[in-house]
Write a structure and sequence with these properties.
Blueprint lengths: L4 H10 L5 H34 L3 H37 L3 H29 L3 H4 L4 H16 L1 H16 L4 H24 L3 H27 L6 H7 L10 H32 L4 H37 L3 H28 L1 H8 L3 H15 L2 H16 L4 H26 L1 H25 L6
Length: about 450
């Protein structure tokens, strides 16, 4: 009789042997819900971008100009969350659920404070940001308002991400995935309401996203704090008749979270900075190039989101495996996860190469944007297998709390290879040169991440 994922996860904690088929079944069972959620999120951005794209190239360029900066803020929030989530995965693997709940309480307070700091920073810089990024006056107003609203709603994004990450590290992939899919549906509906019915344009896109994030965050926290069998804390307070008080900061827990999350945060900061520099490199190429670059990035995410879904499963399995002291099993999970990620993203790369023009046509009716974006996508398609290697390997390293050296590797690759090549090629080859630089860099990054994976030093952390 086939065992479900909860039974197989219990095998890890109990130190019981697993067959190769059971390992693969567990990886797939954890990956599929996360992949579906990642794809649905991509489809959400795809539809968002298409909705805005049909408002005209200026509206698309306004969002595209600040898009990389919003990713930077999201990445900083995710890094803070992951510093606590990895600890929870290790404690669950060791069957110490009370310690896992103690870490969760710390995470709720620290992540909320961090999100408020990011929100304040976004509000402070929003009027100046479009001009810093090289944007023209005709798109600066919409770009600044969009960025400010995304920053304000970032509190909801932070808490939704924290709750989802905690549930996933406990082995519950289904609830976060279902809620993320629901968020995509809500986002499309609210975007239609605010963009078209209420005629709010670019600002409406931010409003729709923010309201969808608010509803999803509330539900995600309810499933985590009330319903989770491993991590629920509200029900335990009720049973004991105690009051839910704000927990004191436990400096050892925060110190460990900082040790795990700080390299990731620095990586997101400098990688986001690199994306911003890339935007600055593209900006002089004109409004059409900015729009094509932004929309092509959205389409390309359809290919790499399955890789991030598999990486999340790898983080959970590696984290629990290390917590349980199962080193050989952990290594096996790591290798199988990376192999699966490469296979899936290779197929997605072929799909993107074949249907590049059709996908860009869904995003914009402007022929020049379709032509430039399609060419960029076909260049990038060749890098997808090695991009998968980098994505899933990084998920493995995060589960092992090995974040410093992979962060240095990613940053070195991004700044020394991609940006140097992009700055050199863009003046001569335009957007094609920028995406050629990206494809070369992702291939290089995948190669060095595979080298670290197979050397195995991450497992000794």
């Amino acid at each position: 009789m086939a065992k479900n994922s909860e039974q197989l996860l219990a095998f890890i904690r109990e130190g019981r042997p697993m067959t190769q088929a059971e390992k693969l079944r567990l990886i797939v069972s954890l990956s599929v819900p996360s992949i579906l959620a990642q794809i649905s999120a991509t489809v959400m951005f795809f539809i968002d971008a298409a909705m805005v794209g049909h408002l005209g190239e200026r509206a698309t360029a306004a969002i595209g100009l600040v898009e990389t900066t919003t990713w930077l803020m999201g990445g900083l929030g995710s890094a803070a969350n992951m510093g606590f989530s990895v600890q929870v995965a290790h404690f669950i693997g060791a069957n110490d659920f009370e310690a896992a709940r103690r870490v969760l309480r710390q995470a709720l307070v620290c992540s909320l404070l961090w999100s408020l700091m990011l929100m304040t920073a976004a509000i402070a810089v929003h009027t100046h940001l479009p001009y810093w990024l090289g944007g023209s006056a005709d798109i600066a107003h919409d770009a600044s308002l969009y960025f400010m609203l995304i920053g304000v709603f970032g509190v909801f994004f932070q808490m939704e991400g924290l709750a989802g990450s905690m549930l996933k590290c406990s082995g519950n992939m289904k609830i976060p995935s279902i809620l993320n899919i629901m968020m995509c549906v809500l986002d499309v509906g609210f975007n239609y309401l605010f963009i078209y019915i209420m005629d709010m344009g670019v600002v409406g896109a931010a409003m729709g996203t923010g309201v969808a994030e608010l509803i999803t965050a509330a539900l995600m926290l309810w499933f985590l704090l009330v319903r989770s069998p491993m991590l629920s804390i509200v029900s335990r307070y009720e049973v004991r008749g105690a009051r839910c008080e704000v927990p004191r900061i436990e400096y050892e827990t925060v110190k460990t979270a900082f040790k795990i999350g700080a390299p990731m945060g620095l990586q997101h900061l400098l990688m986001g900075g690199a994306q911003i520099v890339s935007t600055i490199i593209v900006a002089p190429l004109g409004t059409v190039a900015i729009a094509a670059n932004s929309l092509a990035i959205t389409v390309e995410s359809l290919c790499y989101m399955p890789g991030y879904g598999i990486a999340e499963a790898a983080t959970t399995l590696v984290g629990q495996g290390i917590g349980a002291g199962q080193r050989l099993l952990t290594r096996s999970f790591a290798y199988m996860s990376v192999g699966l990620g490469i296979a899936v993203m290779t197929l997605m790369g072929i799909f993107m190469w074949v249907f590049a023009s059709e996908l860009m046509g869904l995003m914009s009716p402007v022929e020049q944007i379709i032509a430039q974006g399609s060419e960029a996508l076909r260049i990038e398609a060749w890098a997808e297998p090695m991009f998968a290697a980098a994505i899933v390997s990084n998920g493995v390293f995060i589960g092992a709390a090995d974040t410093l050296k992979p962060a240095i590797m990613s940053l070195s690759s991004m700044w020394a290879v991609r940006l140097t090549l992009a700055a050199t090629l863009a003046p001569r080859f335009g957007l094609r040169g920028v995406w050629t630089a990206m494809a070369i860099e992702l291939t290089f990054r995948g190669a060095i991440f595979l080298t670290r994976l197979f050397r195995g030093r991450w497992l000794t952390k």
